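User: I want to check something. If I give you two sequences, will you return the structure for each one separately, not as a complex?

Assistant: Yes, each is folded on its own. Here is the first sequence with its structure:
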Amino acid sequence: MRREPFYSEAGGRNEQEAIDVASFLLSLLAKGIRNTPLLRAMELVPRDVFAPRRFRDLARRDIALPLPCGQTMTTPGTVAMMLLALHVEPGQRVLEVGTGTGYVTALLAHLGAEVTTVERFNTLAESAAQHLKIVEAGKVRLEVGDGLAVRVRERFDRILLNGTCPDIPQSLLSLLGPGGRLVGALPHADGPRLVQIDRQPDGEISQSLGAPLRMTRLVPGIAATL
C-alpha cells in the first residue's frame, strides 16, 4: 500500500512550510489525536491543495474555511476526530456523504480505503475531482447525487457523514455491513455531537454520542443549479 506523500513540489518543503506542518500536527496532538497512521495522513495530504485559493495561506490552521455553494471546509481538528472514531483499516470499503473539496476523501484513500464519495453540488464535485487528481488519491469513485438516499446493492465497512442530520436515515444504515461503523453528527441541546453507530456481527445496531463538533447541516436532494 502506498505510504509516500500524494503530492510534492520540486525542492521539497521550505523552512516556513516545515514550521507550518509541525504546528499543524502539534495542534492535532493537543486535541488528543495520537493515531500514527491518521497523523501521517494529515501530514502528507496537503490541505492547501483543497482549500480555496484565497485562503490557502490558512490551510494548515485549525479553522473552517468558506467554500462555494454556501458550504464550509471543516476544521482539521474535527476531521481528525471523526476519522479517529471511524477507525478505517486498509482495504475497507467506505461511503462518504458530502465530498466537499475532496480533502477528507483523500485522507480516507491515504488510509487505504476504497472510497465511494457522493456530493450534491456539481460545482464542488467537479472541483474535488481536480483536487483528487492532483494528489493522485488512489481508489476513489466520486458521484453527484443525494448521499442521504444512496441506492446501491453493495455494503460498506464504514460510512462517514460530513455534516449533521436530524436523524440517521435508515437507507444509510441498511448499507452498513456486519461489523461496520457509521460516523456523523447529530443535533444536541449544546450543539452537534459526534455519533458512532456500529452494526454488530449478529446484525444488532448500537449507537453512542461523543464529543461536540462544529459541523454544518447535511441537506437531502441534489442541488438544482449548482
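And separately, the second sequence with its own structure:
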Amino acid sequence: MQRTTTPATSLPAPAARHYAGLEALAGQVGQVLGESDWVVVDQARIDAFAQATGDHQWLHTDAERAADGPFGTTVAHGFLTLSLLPTLMARAYAVDGVGLRLNYGLERVRFPAPVRVGSRLRARFVLGAFDRLPDEGAQLRVDATVECEGGTKPVCVAQLLTRLHA
C-alpha cells in the first residue's frame, strides 16, 4: 500500500492496520503492529514546540547560527520527536473496541541521530509485551523505532507503556 506524507497542519491519517479488539492484539507479541506514513518536521513545528516548552536553544530555533553548528542547520528537539509517537502510532495501527487508551509511561528512550529541519520521519511499532489487567483491559509495551528518510540510524527508539480499556 502506498502511503503519503501528511503535512503538519492536516488531520491525522487513518490507521494503516486494524486489530479486532484486545484478543486479536494478544497474539501479536513480537510482531510488527504497524508502520506510520511519513511526517515532515518543518521549522514551524520546531518553533511551536520551542514556544510550548520554553526550550529556545539556538540549535533548534536560530537558523543562521545553526548553519555554523554541528549539524549545518536547525534540528528538532529530541522530546519533539518523542512527542510525535502518539500521532505516528495512531496512523500505524488501531485496536477496535477500545474506549480508552492511556499513556502509562516509558521504559527506555534514546535519540541515536539528529532530526534536521525538513526531515521526513516515520515509525514502526512492535508489540513487546501484552499483559492483561484485572478490569478486562491490557497493558502493552510497544517498541517504537522512528526513522528519518535517508538516514542510517534511527532518530528515536522508545519502549512505550500503554494501557487499553474497552
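Because they were folded independently, the notes below concern the second chain alone. Residues 18-41+77-165 form a domain with the Thiol Ester Dehydrase; Chain A fold (CATH 3.10.129.10). Residues 1-11 have pLDDT under 50 and may be disordered.
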